[in-house]
Amino acid sequence: MPVESVEMKPFYVTTPIYYVNSTPHIGHAYTTIAADIVVRHQRQRGRDTFFLTGVDEHASKVARVAAEQGLTPQAYADGIAGVWRELPVRLDASNDFFIRTSDDGHKRFVQEFLTRIKDNGRDDIYQDVYAGLYCVGCEAFKNEDELVDGKCPEHGVAPEWIEERNWFFRLSAYQDALLRLYEERPDFVLPRFRANEARSFVEGGLQDFSISRAGQPWGIPIPWDPDQVAYVWADALVNYMSALTYAREGEDLRDRYWPEVRHLLAKDILRFHCVYWPAMLLAAGYDVPQQLFVHGYLLRDEKKISKSLGNVVDPLDLIDVYGADALRFWCARVVTFGQDGIASVESIHERYERELGNDLGNLLSRTTAMIARYRDGRLAAERPPGPSPVADAMTGLADDVAERLDAYDITGGLERIWELVRALNRHVEASAPWGLAKDPGRAAELDAVLYDLADGLRAVAVALAAYVPTTSARILEALGQPSSIGWGEVAYGRVQEATGIEPASPLFPRIEAPTPTP
Ligand code: ME8
After folding, report:
1. Taking a C-beta distance cutoff of 8 angstroms, is the pair 331, 33 a contact?
2. One-letter-per-residue 3-state SS of 465-512
3. How far apart are CA 105 and CA 511, in angstroms?
4. In a 3-state reduction of DSSP, which class is residue 455?
5. Mutate-to-test residue for ligand 1 from 14, 15, 19, 20, highest number of ligand atoms within 8 A of CB
6. Which helix (H) or strand (E) holds 126?
7. Atom 9 of ligand 1: nearest residue by CA position
8. Residue 20 C-alpha to ligand 1 middle, in angstroms?
9. N or C: which end of the chain has fewer CB within 10 A?
10. Whose CA is nearest to atom 13 of ligand 1?
11. Distance 71 CA to ligand 1 centre (A)
12. What atom in ligand 1 is closest to the CA of residue 304?
């Protein structure tokens, strides 16, 4: 779809809220970076955006660990929430709000939300006794057939037997409504193979699930039965709506952003998001989200990276070495977004050197050095007439990238931009400006080449702004260009006159290669 015809409705993006008691790893950074790329891009197109991330605090493990440390759960959560609040900052993510599920605004809203379901006149919340195997890692009940050697395959631990009287949500009543939703809105869950996964799960029959836990010291009290607290998922999912009610004092942002919401998440929590959450919203009488995009896992040693499996890649360590932009670039580029992929420090290093350092960094260094040397640092806004391979390479770029990013194809969008980066590098080699500079009779040709290189790099910088915001700004500055990054600037021939251009310092200085992991 060409960019002009995209409806300019508001655009609200969420990541899952991360368990406060785990440690940020590359998988968490991955969703946050992807969401940030998508939302920054929409902002460049002039859309009214809102980006939410945050932490999920009411897991039963929080209370357990707090007790071990002699702290109240709240004091323990307060102590560790800062690391999570810092994560998007370090990743250069532009979130508009950071939710904590222990916020008063969230707790109040969850109580209202559950009461709306209870009072919907369809008896959708009822009391029953539940007995079953519960995995604390997943915060979910497990069937025997989901276990491998009696253990949860995700967490490698045996689930616990739990038996208690709980409040249940009548999920089973929403089977037809969900199937109709998937049918009527084929883009509700993307990619399509994930929508099929959700559909087959629903077609297999839905079991009601417990939305409360008894005898827990930590959680949001069930308003009509304060001896029970909300089950952590019945509490956490609601964050996507609750945040809008109190993120801006005195405003209910739901009027603006609900249901224009896009949830990004990995496949581990597909059922909660694509089945339970829309059913809960329907039961509470709210519109379901606009869209859910389910991405794959970053794997290492063929296992999901996670704290419990002990093969964490700490994103903050990677940022210390390579910088946030390199991590963002690598996340978008290493695997086709949506698929599973292998994350290794070696592959970040390789892309840093080859693509960021050589393809992009050297291109800027060479271009600015040539403008400084051959034209005394002056960049003209007029180009001598004649065919331009750079203009050809830029044809359709803005629409192509926008179309890919509208479809969450952050990998494809970046590859399309990189085609231009490669075309610019080819142009340097083919036109050999250093040869033209020796021949005063070819001054106009040299002007044309320098104009094209500068203009191409300028367009690359604007197109890359959602992916690598700091690098983008540095390129524009080195070329003496304004910092405006409106999407309309991704077009040929918009470079502005500039003087005083100096050879740019390396965008991505050389870094010693990491020692290979065993
Ligand atoms: O599930 N590869 O929180 P969580 C890619 N609190 N993405 C990964 C990943 C990996 N190896 N590991 C984690 C929870 N993620 C709940 C969510 S939402 C209402 C409640 C990302 O801390 C991915 O987005 O376990 C996944 O869905 C999320 O982290 C799970 O984070």
Report:
1. yes
2. CCCCHHHHHHHHHHCCCCCCCCHHHCCCCCCCCECCCCCCCCCCCCCC
3. 46
4. helix
5. 19
6. strand 125-135
7. 27
8. 11
9. C
10. 27
11. 26
12. 11
Active site residues: 25, 28, 135, 138, 152, 155, 304, 307
Structural tokens at position 311: 């093969």
Nearest-5° Cα angle at 424, 423 to 425: 90
Ligand 1 atom 15 nearest Cα: 27
Predicted structure pTM score? 0.94
Could you tell me the two tokens for 21? 């008691």
Task: Measure the CA–CA gap between 504 and 371, rounded to whole angstroms.
Answer: 11
Atom of ligand 1 lying closest to residue 31 CA: 24
- Centre of ligand 1 to C-alpha 18, Å, is 6
What string of pLDDT tens digits covers the 518 residues of the chain? Answer: 444 444 689 999 999 999 999 989 899 999 999 999 999 999 999 999 999 999 999 998 999 999 999 999 999 999 999 999 999 999 999 999 999 999 999 999 999 999 999 999 999 999 999 888 988 888 888 888 899 999 999 889 999 998 889 999 999 999 999 999 999 999 999 999 999 999 999 999 999 999 999 988 899 999 999 999 999 999 999 999 999 999 999 999 999 999 999 999 999 999 999 999 999 999 999 999 999 999 999 887 555 555 555 555 777 888 988 999 999 999 999 999 999 988 887 888 899 999 999 999 999 999 999 999 999 999 999 999 999 999 999 999 999 999 999 999 999 999 999 999 999 999 999 999 999 999 999 999 999 999 999 999 999 999 999 999 999 999 999 999 999 999 999 999 999 999 999 999 999 999 887 665 44
Gyration radius of the chain's alpha carbons: 26
Ligand 1, atom 10, lies closest to the CA of 27
The letter for the amino acid at 282 is L
CA of 18, closest atom in ligand 1: 22
Q: How close is the Cα of 333 to the center of ligand 1, in Å?
A: 20
Query: Ligand 1 pocket: which of 13, 14, 18 to mutate (most atoms <8 Å of CB)?
Result: 18
Residues with CB under 6 A from ligand 1: 16-19, 22, 27-28, 30-31, 56, 236-237, 239, 265-266, 268-269, 297-298, 304-306
- Please state whether the peptide bond connecting residue 315 to the residue before it is cis, i.e. omega within 30 degrees of 0: no
Element (H, E) at 307: none
Mutation pick for ligand 1 pocket among 265, 274, 293, 309 (CB with most ligand atoms within 8 Å): 265
Q: What are phi and psi of 207, to 5 degrees?
A: -100, 140
Pairing mode, if any, of strands 298-300 and 303-304? antiparallel
